[in-house]
Automatic annotation (TrEMBL):
This is DUF4982 domain-containing protein. Residues 186-290 form the Glycoside hydrolase family 2 immunoglobulin-like beta-sandwich domain. It comes from Flammeovirga yaeyamensis. Residues 626-702 form the DUF4982 domain. Residues 1-20 form the signal peptide.
Length: 831
């Protein structure tokens, strides 16, 4: 195999590559000491930390629990505030001595302070962005060095679960005295067509020495097949103690365009070469070539193709893994979204992990990268407003500098539902932030998500951004288009319907209320006053085709905000524990574990073309014999026929036979019973047995879905998301789903019995979950309950040569089952 191909494969397989990185970047994530609590002189060299726990970064101390109503359910009922300390002892290796050494944190949640050998390096209040400190002047070349990190998140500082600690990766950057600056490359493609594209490259060369250096900059562009597309050389003077900017421009003929269906990527390899010919730094930047165009009349175009945003908002937690970033968990989350038909992600309401952006680049998802949930005016007591004045400019510029090379990113969002909407001169802040975005990146538009429809327009905040996002204002699209025909508009946040996977309450089409079981029906009709079922957004988008599309709230359930339980509404400050034990949200079409709820299929029926069919509810209604139960089919086929115990209940035509859905929400003036062209509905007198749906296109059968009345659970079915995972770096995960099954092979949709997992072999137990928003079983418990027939276990592959992981599930009265997953060293060829 050719060398370049091997290197490329290595980059594709490595589970933690950083896509704007110097070859001097060194893994610094293992063997950190951790202590939860206050430590006097925690930074001092003499402190004895032998008894502290050894942890691996990324680490989230709060997900270890306990869940308690001592903590705020709005933030997951988990102990994310307080003080925590991390320390790492290290000695420079021979090749690291006398180099320029920096430490790079990709994100510490939050209010971090860092010391090296007792010297204070700095603080960073915002937890969602990375930062770098220069260690060089304080390093001991021969003796042990100690890095100390103090983390001090405050209570009432977030509206969702933020996680706590060093929850993103950390690196030691070992460089020569001349290097490419941190986040120091910017690759911009413009005038892009399928025939040619102009590429502008900007490289920041940093010289730490006092004297000027003559250097040559070699920029090589390599395509996804490993072919060198262009090589450019430039001689320049890197002035002493300064950072200079070198620029180059060239054309790529017949560029391989980046798109949602075919996300082609290029790599820029930058070398800084001394006048003696020594390569002083090699820095790799991945980028994509694509054309984006936003118009008020028609919408958004990607490479000339009209593309509607089928978007979701996502918070950053990874369910049972908490906020600790893991590449595979992030990838699985985004793959599930893509399967639902999603083509765009809004990183609500903060800069996301590097891994998330890399995967969006790789699998073809557009990204709206959002900076803030709060500006200077308070939403919550200890929110970002406390540091806004001092830090907003640095944070916003850093977000753009960090993220600007990702082809997936199409807009920068300066804020979500910021309170400045309601004040007269709030527009000035919006104008300042929008200007920063233009200065840092003239190639992408900026935006914001406005929820105060009248105020944001009256106070002229909406006038400051390039693209106007409205939260929950589908019923206003027509009006705003008429009043502002030149505005480019989209639904920055939509829907907010709540549901618990597999839960249906009788009477069936219930209204918005709290239930004694602490759950919400899965008929996809219930939500808070500002919310509305997906049907309404689909409907208004159809009526207003120039609207760019939507970002529904939220793709996945997340820890915190257990609406309707707990807090009354978004402006409730303080504790949300009146309905404890509810501690996680109900908003997702997918639950905390990645299990699909009914709503997943409603979106899929609208956002995908491959024939699909889904039926709800379950069919275990003992005691309701003869009562009419609403049965819905979600499909993208033309017609569906429903059968009960073999008897046809009639065919219905999608879009013609409209399923009645009860609707009520702010600004909506239509009938309470909305005839939805997006759902098919039958009211079926209950009789146990088999409910079957058959779907047709052009009169031909394209799908079938059967739900049976299930018997007692007898056995467990185990399915792994992948049967071979990587043992390269101890970071790869396997997600195993357990389903309860009866003696006839039917899925037991109402089974809530116990289950216990064990993990053995060449992997370790990582976490469990069942998606129940009111369960207080911690993810680090191997014992839990099925929630409506399902449970999840996550195992981690050991680092090494590879082998097998055995995952066993047992439960009282159930046949014990084991699944075996292979682990293998996937990049061994390259080593
Ligand atoms: C929105 C807010 C989101 C979330 C959502 C719940 O107003 O922007 O962060 O709170 O409501 O419906």
């Amino acid at each position: 195999m050719k060398n370049y191909l091997k290197i490329l494969i290595c980059f594709l397989l490595m589970s933690s590559p950083s896509w704007a990185q110097s070859d001097g970047q060194t893994d610094f994530n293992k063997d950190w000491k951790f202590y939860k609590g206050e430590v006097k002189d925690g930074e001092s060299i003499g402190l004895n930390d032998e008894d502290w726990r050894t942890v691996r970064i990324p680490h989230d101390w709060a997900i270890e629990g306990p869940f308690s109503n001592e903590y705020n359910a709005r933030c997951g009922g988990l102990p994310f505030h307080g003080e925590g300390w991390y320390r790492k002892h290290f000695t420079l290796t021979n090749t690291q001595k006398d180099k320029h050494v920096t430490i790079e944190f990709e994100g510490v949640m939050n209010n971090s302070e860092v010391w090296i050998n007792g010297h204070y390096l700095g603080k960073r209040p915002f937890g969602y962005l990375g930062f770098e400190y220069d260690l060089t002047p304080y390093l001991k070349q021969e003796e042990e060095n100690i890095i100390a990190v103090k983390v001090k998140p405050e209570d009432l500082s977030s509206r969702w679960y933020p996680g706590a600690g060093m929850y993103r990766k950390v690196w030691l950057n070992i460089n020569n005295d001349v290097r490419v600056n941190h986040w120091g490359t910017f690759v911009k493609a413009h005038n892009v067509t399928s025939r040619v594209a102009t590429i502008d490259i900007q490289v920041e060369v940093q010289n730490f020495k006092l004297s000027d250096e003559i250097v040559s900059i070699k920029n090589k562009v390599v395509d996804a097949n490993g072919n060198t597309v262009k090589e450019l050389h430039q001689k320049t003077i890197a002035e002493g103690k300064k950072t200079i900017i070198a620029q180059q421009s060239f054309n790529i003929i017949q560029p391989l365009l980046w798109s949602i269906d075919d996300p082609n990527l290029y790599q820029l390899v930058t070398e800084i070469i001394s006048k003696e010919g020594e390569v002083m730094d090699t820095y790799r930047t991945r980028f994509g070539v694509r054309d984006i165009k936003f118009t008020a009349k028609e919408g958004f175009f990607l490479n000339g193709e009209l593309t509607k945003f089928n978007g979701v908002c996502l918070h950053h937690d990874l369910g049972p893994l908490g906020a600790a970033v893991n590449r595979r968990a992030t990838q699985r989350q985004l793959e599930i979204m893509k399967e639902m038909g999603v083509n765009a992600i809004r990183t609500s309401h903060n800069p996301p992990s590097r891994e998330q952006l890399e995967i969006c680049d790789e699998i073809g998802l557009l990204v709206l990268d959002e900076a803030f949930d709060e500006w200077g005016i308070q939403k919550i007591e200890n929110g970002y407003h406390k540091v806004f004045d001092e830090w907003h400019e640095r944070d916003l510029r850093d977000m753009i500098r960090r993220d600007r090379n990702h082809p997936s990113i199409i807009m920068w969002s300066i804020g979500n539902e910021i309170k400045e909407q309601k004040v007269k001169d709030g527009w000035k802040v919006a104008q300042k932030l929008a200007k920063i975005c233009h200065e840092e990146d003239p190639s992408r538009p900026n935006t914001a998500g406005f929820n105060q429809y009248e105020n944001s327009i009256k106070n002229k905040l909406a006038h400051q951004v390039d693209i106007v996002g409205f939260n929950y204002k589908a019923a206003k699209y027509e009006e705003v288009r008429k009043n502002h025909p030149d505005w480019i508009i989209y639904g920055s946040e939509t829907e907010s319907i709540t549901s618990s996977r597999g839960v249906y309450h009788a009477p069936f089409l219930e209204k918005y209320k709290k239930n004694t079981d602490h759950q919400v029906t899965s008929y996809d009709i219930i939500g808070p006053s500002w919310s509305y079922p997906p049907d309404m957004e689909f409907y208004y988008l159809e009526q207003n085709p120039s609207i760019l599309g939507e970002f529904m709230w939220t793709g996945f359930d997340y820890f915190g905000e257990p609406t309707p339980y707990g807090g009354r509404d978004n402006s409730t400050n303080g504790y949300w524990n009146s309905d404890w034990p509810n501690k996680s949200s109900f908003f997702g079409p997918v639950d905390l574990c990645g299990f699909k709820k009914d709503r997943f299929y409603l979106y899929q029926s609208q956002w995908t073309d491959t024939p699909m069919l889904h039926l709800l509810p379950h069919w275990n209604w003992k005691g309701y014999e003869g009562e009419e139960i609403p049965v819905f089919a979600y499909t993208n086929a033309e017609e569906v026929e429903l059968f009960l115990n073999g008897k046809s209940l009639g065919k219905k035509v999608k879009g013609v036979d409209k399923g009645i859905v009860p609707i009520q929400f702010q600004y909506y003036e239509g009938p309470y019973d909305f005839p939805s062209p997006y759902r098919l509905r039958w009211d079926v007198p209950y009789q146990e047995g088999e409910l079957k749906a058959v779907s047709y296109i052009d009169g031909k059968v394209v799908g079938e879905e059967i739900i049976n009345t299930h018997l007692k659970a007898k056995t467990i079915e185990l399915t792994a998301d992948r049967i071979i995972i990587s043992s390269d770096d101890g970071e790869d995960l396997v997600f195993v789903t357990a389903r309860a099954i009866d003696a006839k092979g039917n899925f037991c949709a109402t089974f809530n019995g116990d289950i216990q997992f064990t993990v053995s072999g060449d992997g370790t137990f990582e976490a469990t979950g069942n998606g129940d928003p009111s369960s207080l079983v911690l993810p680090n418990s191997k014992k839990l309950k099925f929630f409506n027939g399902m449970a999840l276990v996550i195992a981690r592959a050991n680092e090494g040569k590879g082998g097998t992981i055995n995952i066993t599930a047992k439960g009282k009265g159930l046949k014990t089952k084991t699944i075996t997953v292979k682990t293998e060293a996937q990049n061994k060829e390259i080593q």
